[in-house]
Design brief:
Structural class of chain B: mainly alpha
Number of helices of chain A: 12
Helix content of chain A: over 70%
Distance between the termini of chain A: 16 Å
Number of strands of chain A: 4
Radius of gyration of chain B: 21 Å
Number of domains of chain B: 2
Shape of chain B: globular
Strand order of the largest sheet of chain A: 1-4
Oligomer: heterotrimer
CATH class of chain A: Mainly Alpha
Largest sheet of chain A: 2 strands, antiparallel
Largest sheet of chain B: 3 strands, mixed
Strand content of chain B: under 5%
Chain lengths: ~375, ~400, ~425
């Protein structure tokens, strides 16, 4: 029903103006993204200390933060790829993952005094529970809310998604109250593990990246190698043809939501351990940030979403730590959201197909 | 200008052809006018009614963007914020020291306390005009980047703008314009002036004037809505809503048509924002949350996208649920009926979420659907049998 | 249609000029029933404090057998918060005030908890002449032109020109001096101040900035933080001072800020103000982790329970029998004292024959050397308490425990 009004691939450059536009369309986003780190690197090297330690630490924090966004962004990108729905409830599902993790710590009796073995065992159990709970909720939401609207105008499932987002938020609010809730720093996350000439890598960074990378690898392998994964890709390309080829489209879509839910659950737990602070409202912003990541990578593209997650993580950390150097001391980390959303708008306008380009049927 | 002439023509047309509809509207309006006499001048029912009146204006504004033109705007809260800050800036002592070094203020058509305070104090009508100008500019700015985008991408971009507006309101106390800051952050700009139209409004003595002012604003907004819908511009909106490519090839100027929808929807939101701002007497960044945008969107969805009377019905229904049923009437119902350990207020988000889901699955065309919309929706649904069962 | 509407608007207005619910400031109170209202954020993170204040008020009413002279006193608690934001809301506060204004038996109003909401309710109650006593507001500009107020304050909150609002907690100038003095006494060479941008928190931080040079104490930074952020590691990384004063409230993510500051600098001393000086902060499952507890101290206007006179001792005994809480939240004490001051003033006003709201207000403002659970104090012409001593509390085994009295040097506090 919607008109594909974006004309997609830039036309061949015939005039200088068109050439500039084509160049900007192709590389503008990359230039825009590289500008921040490059500026700060040059700036730091020109300082008397000639040290990149500060920037290095920001990049480390950005990558570990970005790992969490990557896990959430994959859920967005998979769902968008297959049914072209911005699943607003996904961020709140991620929040539920954090809350389940917090609840499990209490159930399992994990505290700071728990021994290493008990802690690792407990965290593995918690991780599995978080992933399974979120996956079941996500599949259930799809079954109840989105499947009946498969042929309705696009607006309908989008609004249903917002409805589920509110319901999940309310569950979180009833669960732990209206304000932020501290989580015991079980892993003593800020303990330095590796020190590279001043750039420190802490336990929380290792946890975030160390869980995300294997999870994403397993998942991409599943999608590219397994029968079900191939069915997913086929459905994403053309659901009608896939149905004719004997693929059960409904099952395939459920599977997509299952995978998205699993990763959101894992992301939620990592977030709780990483930030040591959870909130019923965390999912709303996390969802927007992760969606930005998915769009940046090229929505529908799993590798793009992971890449986008890391990039957004770094942008956030750069902004958190150094925005005041650019805009003056009145401007601090509270402006980071504006920076992220400004990027979102810029990408939407100038390069809606993202960095890697999309693999969905409604290209460009 | 052509649009204006068109508006005038259709207004005449509207009066000629729909005198019966107009008569019903006038009767409803008359009843609404005398309703406050059933309650005390400060009663909480009147308080609910005033919120409902403000939300009707918000919803009618958003209906232009989403209902008429089919541009899903999830950042409508930005216009509430700008409208409310208009009264904070031009109707309070916020700029005390900016004006004549804090020795005297600017006063235009105000009386009562406003006349004694320093800073800028304009008459409420002037503030509403200022709010509408500011918001329509903001609306066009927000609309610009979405011009080439698909439906759900528009939702995301407008949402991002809404969030940016909220963050700017919260952190605006760091944005210095000369010696002054843009907003007061989490500190409210308070008290703001109460309107002086025929009488000095006073929220401590009598709420009725606020209600009546709101009714007059609704009447004006309804006339604007109807005449826009039946104008050339309105038909252009519906054309691009239904098929953008076809509309463009038929000569509908896409950019201008879309931007006008954004700007007009925003201007109405701004006027309602100024109204709600003066009524709550405090402009605080915490008021401008994403949930507001969804709340207003839910009203027009409940009523029926694109349907003007449906929007009014939806706005009244949700305002009453939000201001009266949840916090008062059914406040203890979860406990009384099901023995649950929470009040209805604590699940208000969930209730709205549930309503949205239910509405979309059971009656996506809304309570009072617009005829054309209804056709579109049922056509879309016809191929899905499972939905027929639910909606039958 | 529009023209008609406007005309009938004018008619409607003139038809019902005056209006107003239940009597003005000087109208004689008929009947023998009086109502005391409270307006507090029952939902969200301040819910526990709101409950504590309400319990304090209930206890004060119960202590008097629900009667003052020939009058029967009913207590009606109102909620000024929204569930969706978990915070107090100006619109709800205003309607609460109007609920009181409509009630001809309304004699007093305990509230608000948030200074920002009082900005809206003071003018409404002021016009009706209802005495308002806040158990928690510390923002300077509500009552006085002491340092830290904004232009136009406090007169703009009192449209009748007559004061109707008093408070039992000292204003920010005093708490700011107490916080800085405490840090000085503990050997801090400089401080870093944080605030959450609320009226209360930003106001207190501003006062700390004003008072610090007089102590003298060097301020390394005075930063606002975003209460919605997930963490404050980047802000914490910029803290150079050995001591941090956090004026942000517990419901504005105040605990997380402290955790991040302490993580960035293990030895930092943390000082909190009364927005975070609560039993909930001392509970490691909701508040400050056990590992950080030794670094944390906070100020509140309640002094050592051991030094309380008979009034104070009786309160603690009654409170623990009534609510089975051995350690009442400091706000329970404020709630109790707000209501006690109000009820005793009604008694005084009623003693002279006819009772009017005006007389109650006058009685509150003429309070002199009142011996109370908070110590001996008077109410000055602005409605401020003359108390200047603050209690410094620390966390011992999951409860807030009195550490020492901080006496504020009069030269630091200035006069309002």
């Amino acid at each position: 029903m919607e008109a594909a009004s974006i004309t997609g691939k830039p036309l061949a450059a015939t005039t200088p103006v068109a050439a500039v536009r084509a160049f900007l369309g192709r590389y503008g986003l990359i230039i825009l993204l590289a500008a921040g780190p490059v500026y700060f690197a040059i700036h730091d090297l020109l300082q008397p200390s000639h040290s990149l330690v500060k920037l290095g630490n920001v990049l480390v924090a950005g990558i570990s933060n970005g790992a969490i966004w990557a896990l959430v962004a994959v859920g967005y990108t998979l769902v968008y790829g297959i049914i072209e729905l911005i699943n607003f409830a996904h961020g709140d599902l991620f929040m539920i993952g954090s809350f389940v993790g917090y609840g499990m710590f209490g159930t399992l009796g994990l505290t700071l005094t728990t021994g290493t073995l008990g802690l690792v065992g407990g965290l593995v159990v918690t991780l599995i529970v978080c992933m399974l709970v979120c996956a079941s909720i996500n599949v259930m939401i799809e079954r109840v809310g989105y499947r009946p609207l498969r042929n309705a105008p696009k607006l309908a499932p989008l609004i249903t998604a917002v409805g589920f987002s509110f319901i999940l938020q309310n569950v979180g609010e009833l669960w732990l109250g209206g304000s932020q809730h501290g989580v015991t720093d079980l892993i003593r996350g800020s303990t330095h593990v590796i020190n590279l000439g001043g750039v420190t890598i802490d336990r929380q960074d290792i946890l975030a990246v160390g869980l995300t990378v294997p999870l994403v690898l397993v998942m991409t392998t599943f999608i590219s190698q397994s029968r079900l994964g191939k069915a997913m890709r086929a459905t994403a390309q053309d659901p009608e043809a896939a149905r004719l080829m004997g693929i059960n489209v409904d099952t395939t879509i459920s599977l997509t939501f299952l995978i998205g839910g699993l990763l959101a659950g894992a992301g939620g737990l990592i977030y709780a351990l990483y930030q040591t602070n959870i909130w019923f409202f965390q999912g709303f912003r996390a969802g927007l940030i992760a969606f930005t990541a998915a769009v940046m990578g090229g929505i529908g593209n799993v590798r793009g979403a992971v890449l986008g997650g890391f990039i957004i993580g770094i942008i956030q950390q750069l902004s958190d730590n150094r925005i005041h150097e650019v805009l003056g001391k009145n401007f601090g980390s509270e402006w980071t959201n504006v920076v992220v959303f400004a990027y979102l708008i810029l990408i939407m306008v100038f390069r809606p197909q993202g960095l890697i380009g999309e693999e969905t049927r409604e290209a460009g | 200008m052509a649009a204006l002439t068109g508006m005038r023509d259709t207004l005449a047309d509207f009066r000629r052809r729909r005198w019966s509809g107009l008569a019903i509207a006038a009767a409803v309006f008359a009843i609404a006018w005398f309703l406050p006499y059933l309650y005390g001048p400060l009663s909480s029912t009147l308080d609910t009614a005033i919120y409902a009146v403000a939300y009707i204006i918000f919803a009618l504004g958003l209906n232009i963007v989403v209902g008429f033109a089919g541009l899903l705007d999830l950042g409508y809260v930005a216009f509430y914020a700008i409208g409310a800050y208009s009264i904070g800036w031009f109707g309070s002592d916020w700029f005390t020291e900016a004006i004549n070094g804090g020795k005297s203020g600017i006063h235009v058509g105000v009386s009562g306390q406003a006349a004694h305070l320093l800073g800028i104090h304009l008459n409420f009508i002037l503030i509403v005009i200022a709010a509408m100008i500011l918001t329509s500019i903001a609306g066009a700015i927000i609309g610009l980047p979405t011009l080439r985008l698909r439906g759900d991408y528009i939702a995301i971009v407008t949402l991002a703008f809404g969030e940016i507006a909220g963050t700017v309101a919260l952190n605006g106390d760091a944005i210095h314009i000369g010696k002054f800051t843009l907003t007061a952050g989490q500190t409210a700009i308070s008290p703001v002036d109460q309107p002086n139209l025929f009488t000095q409004f006073d929220n401590a003595l009598n709420l009725r004037p606020y209600y009546w002012l709101g009714l007059v604003m609704i009447a004006i907004v309804l006339v604007i809505n109807f005449s826009l819908r039946d104008s050339r511009l309105g038909r252009a909106w519906i054309a691009i809503r239904e098929d953008e490519v076809a509309a463009a090839s038929m000569g509908v100027p896409l950019v201008r048509t879309k931007l006008l929808a954004y700007a007009m929807g925003a201007a109405l939101g701004g006027s309602a924002g100024a109204f709600l701002g003066t009524y709550t007497q405090a402009i605080n960044s915490t008021q401008f949350q994403f949930s507001f945008s969804i709340f207003v969107l839910a009203m027009i969805i409940l009523g029926g996208l694109g349907s003007i009377w449906g929007t009014v019905v939806g706005a009244i229904a949700l305002s009453v649920i939000n201001q009266q049923l949840i916090p008062t009437t059914f406040h203890t119902a979860p406990h009384d009926l099901f023995g649950l350990n929470f009040t209805a207020s604590e699940i208000s988000f969930g209730i709205f979420g549930f309503l949205l889901v239910l509405m979309m699955i059971a009656r996506p065309q809304g309570l009072v659907p617009e005829r054309r919309r209804k056709l579109e929706l049922t056509e879309g649904l016809a191929s899905d049998e499972s939905l027929y069962e639910v909606s039958a | 249609m529009t023209a008609v509407s406007i005309a009938s608007l004018a008619v409607g207005v003139s038809a019902c000029g005056g209006g107003g619910g239940g009597g003005g400031p000087t109208a004689k109170i008929t009947g023998t029933s009086l109502t005391v209202y409270s307006s507090l954020p029952e939902q969200g993170a301040s819910g526990d404090q709101a409950k504590a204040i309400e319990n304090g008020v209930k206890l004060a009413v119960k202590d008097r057998g629900g009667k003052v002279g020939k009058y029967t006193v009913t207590y009606k608690p109102l909620d000024d918060s929204l569930a969706s934001t978990g915070a107090a809301d100006e619109g709800k506060g205003a309607q609460n005030a109007r609920t009181a204004v409509q009630d001809s038996s309304a004699i007093g109003y305990v509230g608000e908890y948030n200074s920002g909401i009082s900005k809206v309710t003071i003018p409404i109650l002021n016009k009706a002449g209802i005495t308002q006593i806040s158990p928690a507001n510390t923002y300077v500009g509500l009552t006085s032109t002491a340092p830290g107020h904004e232009p136009g304050e406090p007169d703009k909150y009192y449209p009748t020109g007559k004061r109707t609002y008093a408070r039992v907690v000292p204003k920010d100038t005093i708490q700011a001096a107490a916080l800085v003095t405490a840090a000085k006494q503990d050997g801090c060479s400089s401080i870093h101040v944080f605030n959450s941008k609320t009226t209360y928190s930003a106001g207190l931080a501003r006062n700390i900035g004003l008072v610090a040079p007089k102590v003298p104490m060097k301020i390394e930074g005075n930063d606002a933080y975003d209460p919605k952020a997930a963490n404050y590691r980047s802000l914490a990384a910029n803290v150079k001072a050995p001591c941090v004063i956090q004026t942000g409230e517990i419901e504005q993510n105040g605990v997380q800020l402290m955790k991040d500051v302490a993580t960035a600098d293990k030895g930092v001393k943390l000082y909190g103000a009364d927005g975070i000086c609560l039993n909930a902060s001392a509970d490691p499952t909701k508040g400050i982790p056990t590992t950080l507890a030794p670094q944390f101290k906070c100020t509140i206007a309640t002094l050592d329970p051991k030094t309380f006179g008979p009034t104070g001792k009786k309160f603690f005994k009654d409170f623990s029998t009534e609510y089975h809480q051995p350690h009442p939240d400091p706000y329970a004490i404020y709630g109790f004292e707000s209501a006690s001051l109000l009820l005793d003033s009604i008694q005084k006003a009623a003693a002279s024959g006819t009772l009017t709201r005006q007389k109650v207000t006058d009685a509150v403002f003429s309070t002199k050397d009142r011996k109370s659970v908070l110590g001996t104090y008077s109410i000055d012409k602005n409605g401020d308490t003359t108390l200047t001593d603050y209690g410094l509390y620390k966390i011992v085994g999951k409860t807030l425990t009195f550490d020492r009295v901080i006496k504020s040097n009069p030269s630091l506090v200035g006069s309002g």
